[in-house]
């Protein structure tokens, strides 16, 4: 039998088998009404199976298309939200870029310059004392080596 050599999942093999069975039926002479009835029953069962497979495929295709449609709607919604977010981010970036440009071009205030000078003069006064403290702390603590 041809069907035994086919993999059951292989639909092409199944189709060939069905045609082979049909051909075999057609090639045999019908001697009696009983054989004709058997052929009619066989063909009706095959027809019902084909209709059931068609209905299952149509339902599957319909659910697949509904899923695809929902996916497209969701994707479009997310795309619009991302465009709106990106546009807002670009506007914020341009705004802060202009604000920082103004601050860089603007001279420092008198208070800031005075504070900066005081800080560096304090660092210069305290630096020798800090260095001495670091040297003393190194002598007192043993090295890890």
UniProtKB/TrEMBL annotation:
UniProt xrefs under InterPro entries: CEP15-like
Top-rank taxon, per record: Eukaryota
Pfam families in alphabetical order: CEP15-like (PF15134)
This protein's name: Uncharacterized protein
Species this chain originates from: Holothuria leucospilota (Black long sea cucumber)
Species classification: Eukaryota, Metazoa, Echinodermata, Eleutherozoa, Echinozoa
